[in-house]
């Protein structure tokens, strides 16, 4: 099991226990509380989350179908390991899907939307200064999600979040070395390109944000693991 507790999340009154279990486990994976290779058990998760086994089983079933948890047999579970090939594949998927989503968002931009994104980016700066890596990860996801969801129809978002989920456990290892990947603030470049309504600069800034945010240092980390 994980050395860190699975974070609590606000639970609306109408939310079912099954949905709540899924959202908590999904959040723990996406922010990297559960690391690559972490062994899990149904009983251990139920005890840690103070829930009965039934909603845990349903959450595991859903997360397994999203390639976020491996079901190994004999009731053994594991967070998938990362490999160089898998990392390259997931990063290329991010670039392709998010480039599509960000270009779709451009016609729906407003100054209010850009100001909201700036505030999120400012909050990310504060999280970096405080080294609050959980908050930083959630804010980063919100920055991108709010941008990609500007169009009334945003079918790529579910696919993008699936990729984030698969990258989350390994992404945390990269984020823990945040000092080495913040020489250039690519969100500032994204915001400038949005303000200028410049699609070429926007795609370039987005791709740099994704590749510099996980790929380059991720390759080094995986090389050190070998």
From TrEMBL:
It comes from the Bacteria. SUPFAM superfamilies: GntR ligand-binding domain-like, Winged helix' DNA-binding domain. Keywords: DNA-binding, Transcription, Transcription regulation. Residues 15-82 form the HTH gntR-type domain. InterPro entries: GntR_C, TF_FadR/GntR_C, Tscrpt_reg_HTH_GntR, WH-like_DNA-bd_sf, WH_DNA-bd_sf. This is GntR family transcriptional regulator. The lineage of its organism: Bacteria, Pseudomonadati, Pseudomonadota, Alphaproteobacteria, Rhodobacterales.
């Amino acid at each position: 099991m994980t050395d860190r507790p699975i974070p609590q999340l606000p639970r609306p009154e109408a939310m079912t226990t099954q949905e709540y279990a899924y959202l908590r486990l999904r959040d723990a994976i996406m922010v990297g509380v559960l690391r690559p290779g972490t062994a899990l058990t149904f009983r251990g998760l139920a005890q840690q989350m103070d829930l009965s086994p039934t909603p845990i089983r349903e959450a595991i079933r859903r997360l397994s179908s999203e390639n976020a948890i491996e079901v190994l047999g004999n009731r053994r579970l594991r967070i998938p390991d990362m490999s160089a090939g898998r990392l390259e594949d997931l990063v290329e998927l991010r670039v392709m899907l998010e480039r599509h989503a960000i270009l779709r968002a451009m016609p729906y931009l407003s100054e209010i939307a850009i100001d909201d994104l700036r505030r999120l980016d400012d909050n990310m700066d504060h999280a970096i200064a405080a080294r609050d890596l959980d908050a930083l990860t959630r804010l980063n996801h919100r920055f991108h999600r709010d941008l990609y969801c500007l169009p009334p129809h945003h079918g790529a978002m579910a696919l993008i979040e699936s990729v984030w989920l698969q990258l989350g456990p390994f992404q945390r290892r990269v984020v823990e070395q945040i000092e080495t990947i913040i020489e250039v603030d690519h969100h500032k470049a994204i915001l400038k390109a949005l303000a200028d309504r410049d699609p070429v600069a926007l795609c370039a800034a987005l791709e740099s944000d994704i590749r510099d945010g996980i790929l380059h240092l991720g390759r080094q980390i995986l090389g050190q693991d070998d």
